[in-house]
Design goal:
The chain is α/β, with parallel strands linked by helices. The protein has 7 helices and 5 strands; from the N terminus they run H-E-H-E-H-E-H-H-E-H-E-H. It starts with a helix and ends in a 6-residue tail after the last helix.
């Protein structure tokens, strides 16, 4: 935390916390950062508090996103899908087909996070395989999401999906 606070001076640094499920976890992280910031100030070392965001990858965080006062949200589509659908993304067999990021349950949770972020002016992005799949991109754009983290190899097909979004609407 101290190194991040020192690195944040004069730089656009953001800190994203993984696997957050509750507001208490974010509050604890904020307290650690605040304590370290006070230590650095007492040592007369330059430091700045960066924005603290969370990965929305647990169903608890997605369902109760309005209770987690993060500075930004990044939806982790791979983990969120796995936990919502109770189907490991690396397993085969009968449950493999359940690992579907386009399932209505997953899309509803993503939409809820996107709407909440828009309502309070908090940035929302998404990373994961869904952002590199044209069908996933179309669904995310329909939900109002406009920030995607895309694998470099998928950039061309994602650009085509974004360019084609709404083209058939007239």
């Amino acid at each position: 935390a101290r190194a991040l606070l020192r690195a944040a001076v004069g730089r656009p640094l953001k800190v994203m916390l993984p696997m957050v499920a509750t507001a208490a976890e974010l509050a604890e992280a904020r307290a650690v950062f605040a304590s370290c910031l006070a230590e650095l100030a007492a040592e007369d070392l330059p430091a700045a508090m960066p924005p603290l965001g969370i990965m929305v990858e647990t169903p608890a965080a997605a369902v109760a996103v309005d209770l987690i006062p993060a500075d930004f949200f990044s939806i982790g589509s791979n983990d969120l899908t796995q936990y919502v659908m109770a189907a490991s993304r690396d397993a085969g067999g009968r449950v493999a087909a359940l690992n579907d990021p386009l399932h209505p349950a997953v899309l509803r949770l993503i939409g809820q996070v996107v709407r909440h972020g828009a309502a309070i002016g908090t940035p929302v992005s998404l990373c994961g395989d869904m952002a590199s799949d044209p069908a996933g991109v179309a669904a995310l754009l329909e939900l109002g999401l406009r920030r995607l983290s895309v694998a470099p190899a998928a950039l061309g097909r994602v650009k085509l999906a974004v360019a084609g979004f709404g083209a058939t609407d007239g």
